[in-house]
Specification:
This protein is mostly helical and about 400 residues long. Helix content is about 70%, strand content about 0%. The strands form 2 sheets. Strands 1-2 form a two-stranded antiparallel sheet. It has a two-stranded antiparallel ribbon with strand order 3-4. A hairpin with a 2-residue loop joins strand 1 and strand 2. The longest helix has about 40 residues. The N and C termini lie far apart (about 55 Å).
C-alpha cells in the first residue's frame, strides 16, 4: 500500500509539472559568478586556524607560553573559527545560501575538532609527569574487532603527536574526538571502497532529483496559503511535504553516515566505523539523539556533558545545556547562510527537551517509538515551510515595496 500510494503521487507529480530535474541548475546553487568561488576560498582559508592550533600546542608543550596564555590563544582561535565565516557570508554578495551552508558546516566541524585537539593535548600535559604513554579516556575509541575489518592501533606519545601529518589526519578523519593513537585498519579494501563510492554518486543524484521534482513544487505552492493564512491549506501543504521531506532525509542519512563516512574511513584506513546505532528503534527522544549521530554524541559527552557534571551541575541541567548548544549550531547553519535571523531551528531543538520528558514519562515501547517517528516526520517540514516563507517574504516581496518607497 505504501509503494502504490507513493507511486500514484509520483505519477501525479509528473503529469502536473512534467520533468523538473535540471542538473545544470544545481551548479547555480553553489555559484552566482563562475569566476567567484567564495565558499571554496573560505574552506581554503580554514588552514590558517588549523596551523594556529598546532603552533599554540607546540609552544605549550615546551613551556614557552603558560597554560593561561595558551587558553586565551585557543579561545581567540576558536572564536574566530565561528565568527570569521559569518562575516564573510554576510558581507560577500556572491555567496549563495547553499555555498554558505557548506562553508559554515566545514567551519563548525573544524571548531569541534580543534576544541577536542586542545582538550586532549591539555590532558596529556597533565598526565605527562606520571609517564603515561597513551591517553586513556572513558570515551576513547576502542581497539576492537569491527564488522568492516580488524582495527590495529599504534602507540604515540606526547608531544610526538604535535606534527602537521598527525593533525591533518585528524582533520580529515571521520571523527570529532581527537586521540593520540587512532585504531587503523590493516589495508584498503578496493571492492568496499568502490561500493561506497557508487552509493555516494547514486544517492546524491537521486537526492537532487527528488528535491527538484517533488519538494520544490510543493514548497512553491505553499507561498499563497502562508500569505493568506489559510490554515486548512497550510496543514494540507505540510502533510504533503512531510512524505518527500522524510524520504529525502532518510536517504541523506544513509548517504552521509553510511556511504560517505565509510568511504572516507576506508580511504584513510580509519578503524572505528561506529557512525550510528539503531536510532530507528528509539523508544525515547533521548535514545534517538544519543544514537543517530555517534561522532557528535561522543564529542558532546567527552568535551561538554562530563565537564559540566564535574562542576556539580545536575544531569538534567547538563542535558539541557547540550540541547542548547546543539540548538545554537542548528540555527547557526541555517540563519547565517540565508542572511535572516529566525529562531525556528533553535526552537525546534529546544522543543526536544519537553518532548523528551513527555515521551520518557508517559509513553513506553511502540508508543514511544511512534512518538519519535512522528516528531521527525512532522517537525522537519514545519521548519522548512517557516524558513521558506520568511525567505520569500524577505527577498521577493519586500524589494518591490522598498523600490516604490
Amino acid at each position: 500500500m505504501l509503494v502504490l500510494s507513493n507511486a500514484r503521487l509520483f505519477l501525479e507529480n509528473l503529469i502536473k509539472y512534467g520533468i523538473l530535474v535540471d542538473p545544470i541548475q544545481v551548479i547555480s546553487l553553489f555559484l552566482k559568478d563562475p569566476y567567484s568561488w567564495p565558499a571554496m576560498c573560505l574552506v581554503i582559508v580554514s588552514n590558517v586556524f588549523i596551523l594556529a592550533a598546532l603552533y599554540i600546542e607546540r609552544k605549550l608543550s615546551v613551556g614557552f607560553v603558560s597554560e593561561r596564555v595558551g587558553f586565551l590563544l585557543h579561545f581567540f582561535n576558536l572564536s574566530m573559527i565561528l565568527c570569521f565565516p559569518v562575516a564573510v557570508v554576510l558581507m560577500v554578495n556572491s555567496m549563495t545560501p547553499v555555498g554558505g551552508v557548506f562553508a559554515l558546516a566545514v567551519y563548525t566541524i573544524l571548531f569541534l575538532k580543534l576544541y577536542s585537539y586542545k582538550d586532549v593535548n591539555k590532558w596529556c600535559r597533565e598526565i605527562r609527569h606520571a609517564k603515561a604513554r597513551t591517553l586513556a579516556r572513558s570515551q576513547s575509541f576502542p581497539m576492537a574487532h569491527k564488522a568492516n575489518g580488524d582495527a590495529v592501533q599504534a602507540h604515540v606519545t606526547y608531544p610526538g603527536n604535535l606534527k602537521h601529518r598527525d593533525l591533518y589526519y585528524f582533520v580529515f578523519a571521520p571523527t570529532l574526538c581527537y586521540e593520540l593513537s587512532f585504531p587503523r585498519s590493516p589495508r584498503i579494501r578496493k571492492r568496499f571502497l568502490l561500493r561506497r563510492l557508487f552509493e555516494m554518486l547514486f544517492f546524491i543524484q537521486l537526492l537532487v532529483g527528488l528535491i527538484q521534482q517533488w519538494m520544490v513544487p510543493t514548497i512553491q505552492n505553499s507561498r499563497k496559503p502562508f500569505k493568506d493564512m489559510n490554515y486548512s491549506r497550510l496543514i494540507e501543504r505540510l502533510l504533503k511535504l512531510a512524505v518527500p521531506n522524510h524520504l529525502i532525509w532518510l536517504m541523506f542519512f544513509y548517504w552521509f553516515f553510511h556511504s560517505s563516512m565509510n568511504f572516507v574511513a576506508e580511504l584513510m584506513q580509519f578503524g572505528d566505523r561506529e557512525f550510528y546505532r539503531d536510532w530507528w528503534n528509539s523508544e525515547t527522544v533521548t535514545y534517538f539523539w544519543q544514537n543517530w549521530n555517534i561522532p557528535v554524541h561522543k564529542w558532546c559527552i567527552r568535551h561538554f556533558y562530563k565537564p559540566i557534571l564535574k562542576r556539580g551541575t545536575s544531569k538534567w541541567a547538563a542535558q539541557t545545556a547540550v540541547f542548547l548548544a546543539s540548538a545554537f549550531f542548528h540555527e547557526y547553519l541555517v540563519s547565517v547562510p540565508l542572511k535572516m535571523f529566525r529562531p525556528w531551528a533553535f526552537m525546534g531543538m529546544i522543543s526536544q527537551v519537553p518532548l523528551a520528558w513527555f515521551v520518557g514519562r508517559f509513553l513506553r515501547g511502540n508508543y514511544g517509538n511512534a512518538a519519535v517517528w512522528i516528531s521527525l516526520i512532522i517537525g522537519q517540514p514545519i521548519a522548512v515551510l517557516m524558513y521558506v516563507h520568511d525567505y520569500y517574504i524577505l527577498n521577493y516581496e519586500e524589494t518591490p515595496a522598498a523600490g516604490m518607497a
